[in-house]
Design the sequence.
């Protein structure tokens, strides 16, 4: 199956999941969040990895739904922490309901993710839950680093890469490895598929950073320049400071320190500095580096190239996406 067929399978399954527990007011926000769509990249990765070994990906749709449930739980709480108004063009849970609902429904969503993950092959449940739990802890660590970085102006490139590895990459790696575990892949293949997901995840997040500055708003689906306005310590801003001359660095610092700047003016000015310093090309090179590293690990997986083709193609599509 190709990634589009897998995505449709995931989407159909998620929309049919029942929410019949009471009180309905606790579960309505969970159903709402999971109905908002998105790339569904984590469950698709899990099913594509499984499909490299076995031809019945529908048999692991519940664990795939579990990882998507977990991912959306993190977004629900991220939106609350950031006081974000919108998610995928719709009101966030704390805006549509309130903050207390977002906290409690988010907590229940996390438990539900574990409940759904436990519907995997019982013989493999220990390995699956051990990996899932370690990953959940790492994601919390990544989120804390991200928060800590808001109050620092000396964040290094290495620190940023480690933060996005924890906050984003490890869940993609977890998805691929769980798919491999459930498909009875060898221990070596499981390790290489985890590393594939991890390196691919770094490329994926850096592409997100790039699109936030250079994406087409009509395609991207939201205003560009959000990271610039928030002074987010991205790969791009860190390297702009590192590579700027004295005059450029002074102007960058002026915009970072500016209070209540005009959005268009700030985004235009900082983007012009990125252009002058060569940050777009630098970021593209880094994306290509991590994507190539990911493919090296996929090369090591001990099955035919034909069986790997769908996963390899999907990774390329995601890294070269425009939204």
Sequence:
């Amino acid at each position: 199956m190709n990634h589009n067929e897998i995505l449709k399978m995931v989407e159909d399954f998620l929309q049919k999941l029942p929410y019949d527990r009471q009180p309905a007011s606790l579960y309505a926000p969970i159903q709402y969040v999971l109905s908002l769509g998105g790339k569904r990249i984590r469950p698709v990765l899990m099913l594509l990895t499984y499909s490299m070994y076995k031809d019945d990906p529908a048999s692991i749709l519940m664990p795939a739904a579990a990882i998507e449930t977990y991912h959306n739980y993190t977004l629900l709480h991220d939106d609350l922490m950031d006081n974000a108004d919108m998610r995928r063009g719709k009101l966030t849970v704390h805006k549509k309901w309130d903050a207390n609902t977002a906290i409690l429904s988010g907590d229940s969503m996390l438990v539900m993710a574990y409940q759904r993950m436990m519907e995997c092959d019982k013989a493999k449940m220990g390995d699956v839950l051990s990996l899932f739990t370690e990953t959940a802890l790492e994601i919390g660590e990544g989120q804390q680093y991200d928060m800590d970085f808001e109050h620092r102006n000396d964040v290094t490139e290495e620190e940023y890469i480690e933060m996005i590895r924890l906050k984003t990459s490890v869940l993609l790696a977890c998805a691929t490895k769980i798919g491999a575990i459930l498909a009875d892949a060898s221990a070596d293949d499981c390790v290489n598929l985890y590393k594939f997901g991890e390196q691919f995840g770094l490329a994926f997040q850096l592409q997100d950073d790039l699109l936030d500055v250079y994406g087409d708003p009509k395609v991207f689906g939201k205003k560009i320049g959000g990271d610039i306005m928030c002074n987010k310590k991205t790969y791009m801003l860190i390297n702009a400071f590192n590579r700027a001359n004295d005059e450029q660095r002074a102007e960058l610092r002026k915009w970072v320190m500016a209070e209540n700047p005009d959005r268009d003016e700030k985004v235009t000015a900082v983007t012009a500095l990125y252009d002058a310093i060569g940050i777009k090309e630098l970021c593209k090179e880094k994306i290509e580096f991590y994507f190539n590293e990911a493919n090296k690990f996929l090369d090591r997986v001990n099955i035919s190239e034909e069986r790997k083709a769908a996963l390899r193609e999907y990774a390329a599509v995601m890294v070269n996406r425009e939204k």
Summary: The CA atoms of residues 70 and 111 lie 9 Å apart.
